[in-house]
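Budget justification note: compute hours in this period were largely spent on complex prediction jobs such as the one shown. Inputs:
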Amino acid sequence: MRDQVLSRRVAGLKPSGIRKFFDIAATMKDIISLGIGEPDFCTPDPILQAGIQSLQRGETHYTSNYGIIELRRALSAHIEKLYGVHYDPDTEIVITVGGSEALNLAAIALVDPGDEVIIPTPCFVSYQAAIIMAGGIAVEVPSRMENNFALDPEDIRRAITPRTKAILIGYPNNPTGAVASREALLAVSKIAEEHDLVVISDEIYDRLVYGVKHVCYPALPGNRERSLLLGGFSKDYAMTGWRIGYACGPVNIIKGLLRVHQYMVMSAPTMSQKAALEGLASGEPYIQQMVAEYDRRRKLIVNGLNAMGLPTFEPKGAFYAFPKVSVTGLDDDTFANRLLQEEHVALVPGNSFGLGGEGFVRCSYATSYEKIEQALEHIEHFVNRI
Ligand SMILES: Cc1ncc(COP(=O)(O)O)c(C=O)c1O
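Corresponding output:
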């Protein structure tokens, strides 16, 4: 067998820091995990039933490559009602296998080898990988805690080169919980227009915001034609395992994503599309309940971490807190590893999320209030000991 069997692109990908960590955690007993980036809630019952009934009706076949038209119509109406931006359900929406597929379609459809994509970091671990797998170069632009991990348009501007093709943003943000202000997003639009760049906006946590309104990037004036809106049902509707996401954009870009999607997966799971359709019809009260519970946990964890001396900025979205652990004298890898070994609490070292994450850890509060209370006690013991 030749030495270099894997493509250089794939061989060069760093293993996900999250996976590495959870492989260790999986071998241990009695772990309290603040590590997982998915809702602890089960999918709301009407959505569950819609999926089951779809299967029982024998809907076990492929759908249109775009996804079922009923779901595209409902999604188009939903997005328009929330944000005032219209996507034609016939040609401007594609239903994907989770937000993850939407991200990879966007990368493959837009990026040529050597193209640069600017990514504010820390960010979802798949952003850099999606760009690299598409043959592009991920240009990380770190945000800072002193600035509440806000999107800094001037940092983006400084990172632009003649090879820059796109900007990939994700707010509410995983792992920091930061949300993006209208002003910052408008400044990004201006940069995108000046330099003829496409903006890929991953808004998968759009409904999980606390005391603020989500600002939808493509809905801002002039943005629709040079942006892609990525989203999904995994987080807001507690549907990670159903694998339903979407990409919306102008027809010339969606045409490209659809071509890749056709060859790659053909269509998203049929029963899951039916379940998602039910989510749009009757999911709202469940989202409200989940948001209220996340908010209760958010306050508990942020106050708890700050009280024990780990500076933690107040996240306004998603379900993560991002305390600065370097104040203990330990780096984030050592902090997370020792906390796991000595106190059996799992969280994720911040450097897994790219530049700017070093010295921080991600604590997910998508776990029960009681478990968070226990985890905080253990973290406090650990911090007091070191
Ligand atoms: C910011 C962000 N985008 C996309 C995804 C992918 O979600 P999905 O499960 O729908 O593929 C995640 C999952 O953690 C995420 O955090």
